[in-house]
Specification:
By secondary structure, the protein is α/β, with parallel strands linked by helices. It has a single domain, classed as Rossmann fold (3-Layer(aba) Sandwich), CATH 3.40.50. It contains six helices and twelve strands. The chain has a seven-stranded mixed sheet. Strands 5-6-9 form a three-stranded mixed sheet. The protein has a two-stranded antiparallel sheet with strand order 7-8. The longest helix is centred in the C-terminal third of the chain and has 11 residues. The protein is globular, with a radius of gyration of 15 Å. The mean pLDDT is about 95. The structure holds glutamine. Pathway: Cofactor biosynthesis; pyridoxal 5'-phosphate biosynthesis.
Amino acid sequence: MPSIGVFALQGDVREHLQTLTALGADAFPVRRPAELARCDGLVLPGGESTTMAKLARTFELLEPLRSRVREGMPTFGTCAGMILLADRIEGGTADQETIGGLDVTVRRNAFGRQVDSFEADLAFAGLADPVHAVFIRAPWVERTGPGVEVLAEAQGHPVAVRQGRLMATSFHPEVEGDGRVHRVFLDLVAG
Ligand SMILES: NC(=O)CC[C@H](N)C(=O)O
């Protein structure tokens, strides 16, 4: 049973814990470096990315997170979690820190005011049936580096990507999801 941490200083932690537990993972919240150290894989939930980065710095988790991701820990970011994994951000504050590792540029709040939040059924690479995707003030991926695979798109923009053992979605598969996207991540963890 893989040990999967969910970054828990801010964000929709409980939904991820429930989904991962239902899939048979040993899922637990991560608030300190000792908890991070026992993760086989990590989920960065949705929430508010600037707040999450600031709290990570305050609780001395930011540098440990950066090293674990650099060392190849499988990591899955959803929405704000995608922003935290991105190497470059557009539409953020100038001093916004990220964990980084994913060679993409993401645009925060990209879908704009009109469609602040919306839902869509999206084709997802490797899955037979469309995934029901809930978007809440979501980013999209503006540019991808050469090693990045696009797994899903919405309105012509990448909204799910994978690079090696890193995976990110603009939407919230932990909300009204059926577990299949988390299963894709657990398969990555299993290697
Ligand atoms: N639902 C979400 O995670 C929203 C992300 C948020 N707009 C941010 O920039 O961090």
